[in-house]
Amino acid sequence: MEKGRELKMKLLNPFTENTRNLFLYIFCCMDCGRSDRGLQLHHIVGRDSNSAFNAIVLCNVCHEKCNHSQEEERKYFKTTFNFLLITNYEPTENDLKFLRDYFNRLVYNNIKI
């Protein structure tokens, strides 16, 4: 691992060490797939939660284009959810709180079920 990449991931976001470590070995943008633009860990729905479910690795270009639309948030959440599922991630209390607070918005478009 490049020392600069590790330092950059730490400096550009306020995620917890555990959350950053989950994504540390993602070497390409989880949106466009490019690996030549620098990578950042992005808050999907804003900085209210540092949950792993609220994080996605984006290249600098995709990160700059983020507009936090519901469509974009849903797309990024689905990508992260699937990534955490295949890595057998065990959710923390913080993650469960995030899912309780945002799951409806990110999956069902605010439909009350």
Question: What can you see in these coordinates?
Answer:
The chain is mainly alpha-helical and 113 residues long. The chain has one domain (3-107). It contains 5 helices and 2 strands. The protein has helices spanning 3-11, 17-23, 60-64, 70-86, 93-107; strands at 39-43, 55-59. The protein has a two-stranded antiparallel ribbon. Mean pLDDT is 86; it is low at 7-11.
Report a brief summary of the structure:
The chain contains five helices and two strands; from the N terminus they run H-H-E-E-H-H-H.
* Strand arrangement in the largest pleated sheet: 1-2
Distance between the termini: 45 Å
The count of DSSP E runs of length 2 or more, i.e. the number of strands, is 2
What is the helical fraction, as a range of percent? 40-55%
- Largest sheet descriptor: 2 strands, antiparallel
